[in-house]
Design a protein that fits this description.
Layout: E1 7-12, H1 18-27, E2 31-36, E3 39-44, H2 46-55, E4 62-70, H3 74-82, E5 96-103, H4 110-127, E6 142-149, E7 152-158, H5 180-189, E8 198-200, H6 207-216, H7 238-250, E9 260-264, H8 267-279, E10 286-290, E11 305-308, H9 318-336, E12 341-346, H10 348-354, E13 360-366, E14 369-377
Parallel strand pairs: 5-6, 8-9, 8-11, 9-10, 11-12
Antiparallel strand pairs: 1-3, 1-4, 2-3, 4-7, 6-7, 12-14, 13-14
Helix pairs in contact: 2-7, 3-4, 5-6, 9-10
The structure holds S-adenosylmethionine.
């Protein structure tokens, strides 16, 4: 991994967050940064790849491309895969996992594609005298990612291992926690400057608060993680990672006077938030209080950034029950938070119930659910 040779990488993200991820990657000054659907590609060295894993807040995974070739059937897929020097990417006795996605291709069963790739890798390794690698789940030493689109195969190594949303600070999940990557994307999209008060009136397990604190303190989102995929590769040099992590930690700054406050009407959820906030190291710095968002009233003159993810209905009929909650919350904002900016993840119908103006609306996917990221400046009624 000391090699400075350049590779092509693809950082994945939730659909709708591509622009935010693109900016993050451009800020890291990687080469040939290009926004695509579901992620951003860039060129860089393996050191850049490590930096991407440590610093990217909105990326789900960082994939290192090994090859691209045409495969109209099973044999070319097998041969193209077997030609790759797998012995360089896995240690003797290492474990393996293959994930494939396929679209508009003759090989249209992802599970079959995974099997053929696994066979090719295992055959190559055993022919070279390696013990047969065991195929495992999430914690595999080598995770291979295959993408087929119109019979074109891209084979990559997953340098992240388990998804980057798993920061390592979460000890309590709550009922419907936001993915950390999505929460960070909301905070970055809000254009919060890291100094103004930041408030989440529906904070649940505290994800938005913690991601905001990490951003404000210039703390790398990967600083808590115990393991990344690239750390199991034979080329991994621990010194390189340790130095990068130490440099990142040296650049952290305290929260200082920045106020980050979470409210929730459910005491149990707040206890979970407190456990997560403590685990992330912000114990007494992030304020948590039991309060109903229908009586939300931030301090006068705060001009806060209200960044939040209220409950929203995903089953037919449910959203109707939530409309009064949204309109009461909107009334509180109009009455007590003029000058604040709202950034909220929800559904369009609920945005309409608030009657705060069109603002800016971006389609965003939260797992399998289509959502809207709604951003609006709270103004006095005309
Ligand atoms: C979708 S969850 C938020 C999840 C959170 N972003 C996280 O990452 O854990 C919505 C939260 O709103 C809270 N809630 C529902 N109605 C509320 C109200 N009227 N006032 C305050 N909180 C409320 C729920 O208790 C729940 O924790």
């Amino acid at each position: 991994m000391s090699s400075q040779s350049k590779s092509t990488f693809f950082a994945t993200c939730a659909p709708g967050l591509e622009a935010v991820l693109h900016k993050e990657i451009a800020d890291l000054r990687f080469a040939k940064v290009e926004r695509q659907v579901g992620g951003v590609r860039f060129d860089g060295s393996d050191k850049d790849m490590i930096r991407a894993n440590l610093w990217l807040r909105t990326a789900g995974r960082v994939l290192k491309r090994l090859t691209r070739f045409e495969a109209h059937g099973s044999d070319p897929l097998y041969r193209g895969t077997k030609d790759l020097p797998w012995e360089q990417y896995i240690k003797k006795g290492g474990t393996l996992r293959v994930d494939a996605q396929t679209k508009d291709s003759e090989l249209d069963h992802s599970h079959f594609v995974e099997q053929r790739i696994k066979d090719a890798v295992v055959d190559r390794l055993t022919e070279l005298g390696f013990p047969r690698p065991v195929v495992v789940g999430e914690e595999a030493d080598l995770r291979i990612h295959a993408h087929l689109y119109r019979n074109r195969v891209t084979i990559s190594l997953d340098s992240s291992g388990s998804g980057l949303r798993k920061r390592g600070y979460r000890v309590e999940n709550g009922r419907a926690p936001l993915a950390e990557t999505l929460a960070a994307g909301m905070v970055l999209a809000s254009r919060w400057n890291g100094k103004a008060p930041m408030v989440d009136p529906f904070c649940g397990s505290g994800t938005l608060l913690i991601e905001a604190a990490l951003i404000s303190c210039n703390m790398a989102p990967g600083r808590y993680r115990k393991a990344f995929g690239f750390q199991s590769w034979p080329s991994f040099i621990p010194k390189v990672w340790n130095k990068m992590l130490a440099e990142a930690r040296a650049g952290e700054c305290p929260l200082g006077k920045t106020r980050i406050i979470g409210y929730d009407k459910n005491e149990g959820h707040l206890r979970q938030a407190q456990a997560n906030v403590d685990s992330a190291g912000f114990g007494d710095k992030i304020q948590l209080e039991v309060a109903d968002a229908r009586t939300f009233s931030p301090r006068k003159g705060w001009n806060a950034h209200v960044i939040t993810n209220p409950p929203y209905g995903i089953r037919v009929g449910e959203s109707e029950d939530l409309e009064p909650l949204y309109s009461d919350f909107a009334e509180c904002l109009r009455d007590h938070a003029v000058g604040s900016r709202l950034t909220m993840l929800t559904q369009d119908t609920l945005v309409d119930a608030m009657d705060l103006g069109p603002g800016k609306q971006t389609r965003l996917r939260n797992g399998a659910i289509e959502c809207t990221l709604y951003q609006v400046d709270i103004k006095e009624l005309a």
